[in-house]
Write a structure and sequence with these properties.
The chain is mostly beta strands. The protein is 10% helix and 30% strand. It has one helix and six strands. A hairpin with a 4-residue loop joins strand 1 and strand 2. The radius of gyration is 13 Å and the shape is globular.
Amino acid sequence: MTLKELAIELRKLFEFRYLTVDSTGSIYAYSGQKPEYTEEGGKKYWIGYFLETSIIFETWSYVLSLDMSEYEDDQGNIDYSKCIVEVSDASE
């Protein structure tokens, strides 16, 4: 399942606008403004407004296999700054 496919399936359960994933395997669903990918203190992560975060999934604790190949570079490293999907009623 790709990130976009997951976003479409999750939209059937609750409303949100953006779905992201970071290098720790955490998946964030944001209902408001588009989150930003940032680096601070050597750590890279998505940041959004706390009040606009719909839900957070810690995928390391679930059996979930995401196909992240569309975000890989030539060496197979995932560029997490590109791991964001915008969904709306029109994209479902």
